[in-house]
């Protein structure tokens, strides 16, 4: 009988793992290969997608960096903003009227006048026009020089009285307002240069209808008014059939107090129409001197409210007024000056008026009626230059 101990040592005995190896120490896989001559399995890797550590033989798609996604979103938003701003700018510039006029500075220079210029100051004449008809010059109810003083950080307004007796190029002596009627804003600027020796960079004409739109787009403005000023606004609104209420602003219901100048006033909220009547008022108190002061007050109040407005209100106001604006500034330059003016809304606002209180007298001429004659032109020019150039109180 064959002894069991003589059986092949390679036979696996259950429970005894020591016998799974042959004498040679090689593992038998039962397919003719052993552990030392079986090719090692190497997982195939993509050159573009490295195998993730910790997961042998598994290809994992690498996630895109979050930074790149954020950058793309930012670029898309930026492009959208620029496109929207560009479309808005084109629309606004397309609503403005351009005259193409060039102010002829040589008129003053040919008369021996060296025009005064100031570094870092932009001088723009603003004309408030009424009763404009196609092909004709309207009536300039206001003439205000706007000086943007970047050195001192001030936005300066200088009112020129319409009845100043001046020399109008090609027309002789007459009221300053007549220069606008004869030759529009261009001739009015050349007249100011000839008589006051100040170089004017450009001009803008604003129809009075835009004045109402500006105030209304801002939700109205609050002004200190006397009892008579309130009554004047009510009267003009009613007589021009703009309201059916003779006492639209309830003048007897306001709480009056004494202002810094000793006047009894009340704080009144005005819409665009009412603010326009206030700015044009020269009957309820004083004369044309008082009216120019009211105009400067309204402009300063509008600038102050624009400064505190949100961007959407500001953009809406610019869009509303653009269709009423006429200028000799070309669209490219106007874009730059527009941003300059928007930045200047944060400047301190100052006021001046020509002629000065102590440097004129009243006179009368048959060809033009009642006028204001400046006593000393050199003194008036010196005061004007000092105001524009230096920091004003």
What does this structure look like?
The protein is α+β, with helices and mostly antiparallel strands. It has a domain at 106-220 and 271-389: LCP protein (Aminopeptidase, 3-Layer(aba) Sandwich), CATH 3.40.630. Helix content is 37%, strand content 20%. The protein has a seven-stranded mixed β-sheet with strand order 1-11-7-2-3-4-12, with helices on both faces. It has a three-stranded antiparallel β-sheet with strand order 8-10-9. It has ten helices and 14 strands. It has helices spanning 66-95, 106-109, 176-196, 208-217, 227-239, 272-279, 288-307, 311-322, 331-344, 377-389, and strands spanning 97-98, 121-130, 139-149, 154-160, 165-168, 172-175, 202-207, 221-225, 257-258, 264-270, 325-327, 348-354, 360-365, 369-374.
Q: Summary?
A:
The chain has a domain at 106-220 and 271-389: Aminopeptidase, CATH 3.40.630.
What is the β-strand count?
14
User: Helix- and strand-based class?
Assistant: alpha+beta
Q: Quote the distance from N terminus to C terminus.
A: 133 Å
| Largest sheet, strands/sense/barrel | 7 strands, mixed
The helical percent reads 25-40%
CATH homologous superfamily annotation of the domain at 106-220 and 271-389: LCP protein
- CATH architecture term of the domain at 106-220 and 271-389: 3-Layer(aba) Sandwich
On the 0 to 100 scale, the average pLDDT is 82
Strand order of the largest sheet: 1-11-7-2-3-4-12
Task: Kindly provide the radius of gyration, computed on alpha-carbon positions and rounded to a whole number of angstroms.
Answer: 41 Å
